[in-house]
Amino acid sequence: MLTWKDIINFSVNGSPKPDNRVVKTDAEWKAQLTPEQYRITRQKGTEMAHSGALCSIYDAGKYNCVCCNTPLFDSTIKFSSGTGWPSFTQPIKENAIKYERDTSYGMVRVEVMCNTCDAHLGHIFPDGPEPSGLRYCINSESMVLEKTTSNG
To answer: What share of the chain is helix, strand, coil (3-state, %, to 5)?
Structure first.
């Protein structure tokens, strides 16, 4: 289980190596994504609080990167943070997420990105529920929910 200490270490010393990489030109990303997805994932934008389609959905499944379809988070670790963005306590795999220090807007935060394609996802904070204490605060527009269906 990742802790805040691990996150700070990754943001200073480098993130875990991804399983693979997806690299596309700016024109290819623009052709693939909606204007809002492009603004958020490729230009480090943020959707308005409580506006994202995935904010209040708790269906079983995996939350994948909207750009490269890499699994990022599992629905079992999603929680209602009250912040207006989908929130998670852990990534689906330790190397699914890339961490970078972000000093924009006059504050110090840790930005989280897809480790496969560098898509901006959101930020992580040390104010989540136990046992990890982490809150991955993620833009709905940067993910797609791949719902799990049961055959029983």
So the answer is: 25, 25, 50
pLDDT in tens, 8-49: 999 999 999 999 999 999 999 999 999 999 999 999 999 999
In the 8-state DSSP scheme, what is residue 117? Answer: T
Nearest to 145 by CA among 53, 77, 83: 53
Confidence band for 152, pLDDT divided at 50, 70 and 90: very low
The residue extents of the domains of the chain are 4-147
Active site (catalytic) residues: 137
Closest Cα to residue 140, out of 69, 77, 32, 63? 63
Task: Decide if domain 4-147 falls under CATH 3.40.50.1100.
Answer: no
**Going by C-beta distance under 8 Å and a sequence separation of 6 or more, which residues neighbour residue 60?**
75, 76, 147, 148
* CB-CB contact of 66 with 119 (8 Å): yes
Confidence class for position 151, pLDDT limits 50, 70, 90 = low
